[in-house]
Amino acid sequence: MAKQKKAQWPWHLLTGLILVLGVLAIWYSTSLISYEWRWNRVPQYFAYHAEQAQRAADYGSVESISRQGSDALVTLSVEGGEQQQLTVASDSLQLSEGDDVAEGDVIGVTRHWAAGPLLWGLWTTLWISVAAGVFGLLIGLVTGLCRLSANPTLRHLSTVYVELVRGTPLLVQIFIFYFFIGTVLNLSREFAGVAALALFTGAYVGEIVRAGVQSIVRGQDEAARSLGLSAAQSMRHVILPQAFKRVLPPLAGQFISLVKDTSLVSVIAITELTKSGREAITTSFSTFEIWFCVAALYLVINLPLSQIANRLERRLAQSD
């Protein structure tokens, strides 16, 4: 007799109830401190209408003003008999026909959409994460193989590097790299931040690679060598492809941690997502709203990474 499948809807209902209670708990907590929510102040920190002043190039007068919808075409007659035409927003126009203008006088402004500080911070976090992740992966791969090397110098140096990095806080490493190494070598803060994150990530990736390679049974290497492959060819074509399937979950977790660790480079004045959020709070006074948005943006980055890693892991498992 087939085993009857248990109904899952009560558990889904319980999950939804817990989430609702969590939201209510947050709302109740803010009500205790009389916090006033101001979500209307948040959108401008993602995108806003930027204004650019249009100025007279020389002394002259306003020859004509032609309205074109929400814009106005202003024709100036400047010294030397030349004309200057400026297109400005009609509601920003500060002169009338026949008015005299001096060099540098503001005629009006033009408006265009511009990315706000939170979007710029998100972009900075993304490119720092990608750059540090790529270099960290390369450093980690070399470090992991050196940890398994028969050469004592390579093995000992890679061990010292891994232990030093894993035994000290990332924040301290960023300070040392920027204020000491960066000052001596005259490095930019962006280069110093990416380098510190890459070295930090490389140490952990190195241990992940080492553990993955060692998890492959020795018989795989012996079989490859018996077929005439060299040690390097055996590692490249036999061992590493199998190890990659096993280290994919911890690698994905490490890169997700790297995205969050980029928030620490704000201590060397790199305006990434967290620092952008702090700056937005100082002008908007919307503390909870901004931090919730910052947390959501980190989720926007990390959730797709997690889903891609899970899908790739399932696909690799099917190929075994």
UniProtKB/TrEMBL annotation:
UniProt keyword annotation of Cell membrane present: yes
GO molecular-function terms, A-Z: transmembrane transporter activity
Function: Part of the binding-protein-dependent transport system for glutamine; probably responsible for the translocation of the substrate across the membrane.
GO CC term, one of those recorded: ATP-binding cassette (ABC) transporter complex
Residue ranges annotated for the ABC transmembrane type-1 domain, each copy included: 122-309
Stated name of the protein: Putative glutamine transport system permease protein GlnP
Localization terms from the record: Cell inner membrane; Cell membrane
CDD domains linked: TM_PBP2
Membrane topology: Multi-pass membrane protein
Keywords: Amino-acid transport, Cell membrane, Membrane, Transmembrane, Transmembrane helix, Transport
Entries under InterPro entries matching the protein: AA_ABC_transptr_permease_3TM, ArtM/GltK/GlnP/TcyL/YhdX-like, MetI-like, MetI-like_sf
Keyword Repressor: no
Pfam family name, one: BPD_transp_1
Transmembrane annotation, as ranges: 12-30, 126-148, 160-181
Organism per entry: Phytopseudomonas argentinensis
One GO-annotated biological process of the protein: amino acid transport
Assigned protein family: Belongs to the binding-protein-dependent transport system permease family. HisMQ subfamily.
